[in-house]
Amino acid sequence: MMPMFRAFVPRRIQPWIYLVQVMCIQFSGGVYLGALEAVRGTTNLMIEDLLMLLYTGLAGMAVWFPMLFRMKFRFTNQQLLCGAAAVIGICNFITMSTTNMAILLPVCFIAGIAKIQGTFECMSNIQLWITPPRDFGVFFPVLHIVLLTAITGSAWLAAVVAFHLPWQMMHVLTIGTMCFVILVQLTLCKPFCPMPQRMPLKGIDITTGLLMSVLMLMVSYFLVYGDYLMWFRSPRLRWIVALALILLAFILYRLKTVEKPYISLEIFRYKNVVAILLVTVVAEVLLGAEHTLEEIYWSEVRGLEEHTKTGLCLWSLPGVYAGVVITLFWLGHRKWKVWKLFAIGFGFITAYALWMYFKMDVNVPITAYRWALVFRGCAYAVLAVSLMWSLHESVHELEHFFMSLFIFNVIHMYLAGASGYGLYTSLFQHFMADNMSRYGSYLTLTGVDMQQFDMNGFMNGYYLHSMMSVTLKQIFGQIVWAAGFMTMAFLLLDIPRVRTGIEKVPYWPVYGIKMLARMG
Q: How confident is the model at residue 319 (pLDDT cuts 50, 70, 90)?
């Protein structure tokens, strides 16, 4: 029985109530991927502005990881979930009411913090229901079912709402679901904290945490607006880079000199941590094709509406569930070497890029891309679960593990995605200009009746779309080579598992008492 529920709530449905709550929280956000086109069409915000707001929310989620346990051991579940739901609801009301970037940036950042706190509180309370032995080879795959379903599902839902109704209605729907979470907590739950003695919030290096947040936003600004502002040709971006380097040096100085830093540099001394983070960078940059190349192809070449694109992308969910089953069998049941699992993940990226390479043509029906999306979803699930599991198995201390999750998620869901956007947009422009000049020299109109020939329609229609398809094929070809190399490298490696044994995780009160003793 879950101790935070009131006595009249049936025991069998208690975990499912928390599962519904975590899905409500995960479907929330400051801005919604599926509604970006609708928002851009009705406001003065550019696509770069909306992406900046999206990455700001992800930055808030990443930077809050070291605080999760401190909050859990200081406040009750009711306070945390009601507070998270209330903050998300207020942030959604603000984001649908203004287009001022100076207001939207901190609001989306705070919404990201509330989202990860609410998600952690729900999932930590049902962890024993998912896996009584606390085996993270089981817990992480189940966790990613929730996370990846919500990422794809929320984009689809926002697109459908924006197609039939004003885009603000998605925010209204989110406010309604947050009211539902608060109502559940007030009526079905009672205040409960796993720590008999509440852990104080003193001694937190909040200054360094805030500085890290500013640094993340500066990096995000450079990567998102880089192509729009012509990279280092822009004095503004040059100043951003210079200030970011100075800030980075100051943060590293504080991490080395502060007695209890926000992030301990000791986590880099654990075995395989640096290697895991490097693999994460490569995987996320390769999977960044989803956000940039697919968007160009679906929108610019094929001219699909947002709700059609997101409906097509729902085909990634079967791949996600297949990838989760693979990792659950591999890590939770058989406990095989994780390096071969990396090879499987990169192999699915290779299959995805190959499918897009050979099928990319304006005459191919969009239903032909379903298998590519399945491969992409499978690759994302396999690599996300296996990398997080490897990090947990490498970092022994649980407090250090959550610090390492901060760095992992900065790369996993924030930095690599933004850098992938900047990389692929620059590559696309380079190859597109080269192809237009190269193939344009071979264009001949000697056998064409110019009085009947629509030159503008030809250049802006068939010819432009053909050049875009050729350019996208070239970039997907580069992804095939990179992903194929990573696949072969991990297949050839015969490295033992990160550790031979599975780390035993103590119960939350035991861990909280240990933290409290270290603070004293």
A: very high
| Structure tokens belonging to residue 320 | 């996600």
Closest by CA position to 426, among listed 282, 283, 288? 288
Provide the pLDDT for residue 355: 92
Strand pairing partners for 5? 189
Which has the closest alpha carbon to 316: 356, 369, 355?
369
- Round to whole Å and give the CA distance between 447 and 434: 26
520/170: higher pLDDT: 170
Give 182-206 pLDDT, tens digit per residue. Answer: 999 999 988 888 777 777 777 788 8
Give yes or no for a contact between 64 and 112, defined as CB atoms under 8 angstroms apart: yes
DSSP 261-294: -SS-GGGGGSTTHHHHHHHHHHHHHHHTHHHHHH
Separation of CA 119 from chain center: 14
Closest-CA residue to 420 (of 347, 475, 491, 494): 475
What's the Cα-to-Cα distance from 285 to each of 119, 288, 349, rounded to whole Å? 26, 5, 11
